[in-house]
Amino acid sequence: xxxxxxxxxxxxxxxxxxxxxxxxxxxxxxxxxxxxxxxxxxxxxxxxxxxxxxxxxxxxxxxxxxxxxxxxxxxxxxxxxxxxxxxxxxxxxxxxxxxxxxxxxxxxxxxxxxxxxxxxxxxxxxxxxxxxxxxxxxxxxxxxxxxxxxxxxxxxxxxxxxxxxxxxxxxxxxxxxxxxxxxxxxxxxxxxxxxxxxxxxxxxxxxxxxxxxxxxxxxxxxxxxxxxxxxxxxxxxxxxxxxxxxxxxxxxxxxxxxxxxxxxxxxxxxxxxxxxxxxxxxxxxxxxxxxxxxxxxxxxxxxxxxxxxxxxxxxxxxxxxxxxxxxxxxxxxxxxxxxxxxxxxxxxxxxxxxxxxxxxxxxxxxxxxxxxxxxxxxxxxxxxxxxxxxxxxxxxxxxxxxxxxxxxxxxxxxxxxxxxxxxxxxxxxxxxxxxxxxxxxxxxxxxxxxxxxxxxxxxxxxxxxxxxxxxxxxxxxxxxxxxxxxxxxxxxxxxxxxxxxxxxxxxxxxxxxxxxxxxxxxxxxxxxxxxxxxxxxxxxxxxxxxxxxxxxxxxxxxxxxxxxxxxxxxxxxxxxxxxxxxxxxxxxxxxxxxxxxxxxxxxxxxxxxxxxxxxxxxxxxxxxxxxxxxxxxxxxxxxxxxxxxxxxxxxxxxxxxxxxxxxxxxxxxxxxxxxxxxxxxxxxxxxxxxxxxxxxxxxxxxxxxxxxxxxxxxxxxxxxxxxxxx
Length: 726
Fold this sequence. Notes:
Number of helices: 37
CATH architecture of the domain at 2-174: 3-Layer(aba) Sandwich
Strand content: under 5%
Largest sheet: 5 strands, parallel
Structural class: mainly alpha
Distance between the termini: 97 Å
């Protein structure tokens, strides 16, 4: 009787439990596919069996079901159970007891069928795999063989994939989406707002069992309910699940590999070999094996090189490592930091060094790699400075203090920039710096020039001192050249400034100082526009923009100047919509423009004020101009003070001339404006714009009024002053 009950359980489709979340999208995909072979592979708790039960309830074909266990990895035993499953659906006669007979009977069957072999991770032998492959080749037309489990045996399915006869579903396909997660939690009487729901989905990565365990955690005992932010892989419910459903099945060597490698954010074979102290290069093979066994290992590329652990799984492994070998954790992180630094991943090296708790090691990585990383790709370096906020500690690491002063200045954090510079000035350093400079003095001089705390003349002295003291191939040197150019620009020596900006541009391209090159191009663009060469100004600003690390969205405050310059050039060429896009991007960055880098802040704010005046937005222009004037009150900056007075005068004239109730040019008026400087009559302009002469005249009179002009010639002059037309 016991054997009969066991057989019945193996051959019976599991019933759907009350409250089960319906996987409508996946079920419809399976119903519509009609592929001869379907594989559903994923770690425990991803709902593979539940999905199959839901599919069976919606598909018109009969389902023959077999749940495989450890005792079935024998071709004879497996054949008997498969035949029994098929007989239950009348797919084959009772006498089919050998593979040839079973295959023949299936080939001659008239009705299509779905044969499901679940829990196939227990099948490992080649003989059993050959039996499964034979079954797939002999199923009736319109039938489907479904192979499900945490891992599949070695099967010849590559050809089926090429021939589009195979549908593969993995953990990513099985992961719950937002609505499914919401329904699961509601069944547990939990209602989360959108932010918490999305955070929980991120933590669980859509893992159904993880969401269920999260529900238990969030509901908790009376008065002990947890929060989404506190739910992690070291929660006892999650840890117990992994321990009993997965880790308990592993050998000692596999468990040691998993726990020790859990210190890694991402991993590849050589990194794991280095961290685990492997003399033989075995980690790559082990990672690939773990991926195939669906051990919550996520591949990060198609070449099976880089992987990561599922977030909750990694947290559970880390907790297990802390429980088993806490003394080993710092050493594992130290090895990871050393490998990453040696293999061109300085940011990862910094993170692992920080995890060791060794501040000296972190400082060395930051000093060696932070500025080159910024120069080469515009890296956001704020996180590199974590842990160095204490002034006493900063003085112990003057190189870090100097780098941090530059980072804070670029981000508009004036107080921090000056505090970190003071710490660098107070600290001492012996030896050769990472850029081969012989002392810290040139770095300090460069930062003093950038912050321009003591006037333009001293800025020039500091920049020249930096240039003379920096190593020839230092990535700081183009910045020193740039600052020399800025100082000459502020002194009204435009030709000398242009020459230095060009030299900084060239030097930056040689040493890979991309961000400094972008600043140099922006300064050159501004000079070109000031001389009336808008075409060259736009080309230079475009060149600076094209060097952005991501090629599209601007991120750094230093982008604001080139965006404002691009907008001015676009306005001159009549491309209004693109100009407005650039202005909107620059406005997003504008709040960080201040006296941290006072020369840059004033330059950019004045350019933005000019753009807003060209757009006839006097209020926005006033806001930018007032901020520039406020900086100039604290930090006089040579000719920029005179430029600000000129912009203020232009703004007063605009305000006086404007009809305040109707001051912004309409889209139709913006289309007409580029035609006004031509010799075309209103009738000829109307023909170009496909409107009547009277319409053109009405729009022209409106433009005159808004520009404070009395005639077409006056309007052209005024538009030219604002940079709106050639």
